[in-house]
Amino acid sequence: xxYDAVIIGGGPAGLMAAGRAGxxxxxxxxxxxxNQLGLKLLATGHGRANIxxxxxxxxxxxxxxxxxHKFLFSAFNRFGVQDTVDFFxxxxxxxxxxxxxxxxxxxxxxxxxxxALIKYLKDNNVEIKLGAEVKKIVAYDGKIKKVILNNGEGxxxxxxxxxxxxxxxxxTGSTGDGYKWLNNLGHRIIAPRPAxxxxxxKEKIVKNLEGLSLxxxxxxxxxxxxxxxxxxxxIIFTADGLSxxxxxDLSERIGALLSALTFLKIDFKPEIETARLEKKLQTDxxxxxxxxxxxxxxxxxxxxxxxxxxxxxxxxxxxxxxxVTKLERQALVSALKEFTVEIKELKGFAxxxxxxxxxxxxxxDPKTMRSRLYENLFLAGEILDLDGPSGGYNLQIxxxxxxxxxxxxxx
Length: 411
What we know:
By secondary structure, this protein is α+β, with helices and mostly antiparallel strands. Helix content is 31%, strand content 25%. The chain folds into two domains: 2-194 and 353-408, FAD/NAD(P)-binding domain (3-Layer(bba) Sandwich); 198-347, Helicase, Ruva Protein, domain 3, CATH 1.10.8.50.
């Protein structure tokens, strides 16, 4: 049998591409090496599946996709955020919008998103083959001829879509297979690197803050005493570093800087300027008289953070605040406004939400997702050199590029 389309990879982009191709009347086979579809989808949004973001296809928010954002214009125009919401609603999945434009299933269950997509496949007669690991892709004369599975079976098709994802969350099957196939086919691969991932720092003192979650904290990245970028948002301290939305969203930028010494500075009191904070401490210390420093700071900060700040300054925690010297007060202000740690590394692909890098976009037609090297090969989803911030942006890449690929097949 010769299929009209074979889709390799049953993640978000592959599910969308297969369903759309089937909806157009194509004879479609979806190959998935796992024993179930959409494993990574189940993990998105902490199991809630943040399916898109209201701002994802809007200017200037689209610039959040970085230097390659213009590649997405055609795909977003063809299948954008509202199309995504309407698509899932039509499949019976109710949605809701939360802060920062994030859109979730009303049920807060990623499994229902996957279920809606599987229904989409079945409604459009897509054949699904699970436990089907591709070993090799065979091509000649500018076309893909067949794929060979690990069991030796050869599968022929008029069109092929590679949507195998990147290398993040490898336990879900994203092990970078697609990069190897594309490289063997002559496609250029921009070196994959983990993105949307926690960071590890050198200072052991963060262990004392493990589990501490703080909102609307300002973080800044420095290199060679120069501020590179800042972000205000939520952070979480881990046993060996930091996580949370503000850190996660900067992790790709941080990863690109780590060839040289890179520092992260945290402003625990971004709402008050340095001079005003020092004046506040001076006034409080004078008015509060014999109160101990530890007790005062525990009222000002999280009880977990206060002793760490005191330790960094070297001040005796039992010292009465009206006896704190000007230099000690300035040290406190510095610790509160410029808590500095050296970034050691990113957590890596095992903890990364997505992969940055991938198939060079210069070799892919943005209007169709067709390879410029092979006339019947299409690419969709995370395998492309595209990535965005957390909050539904990356799943929108999958929906838009997957739909575009499925829509563009010739059969």
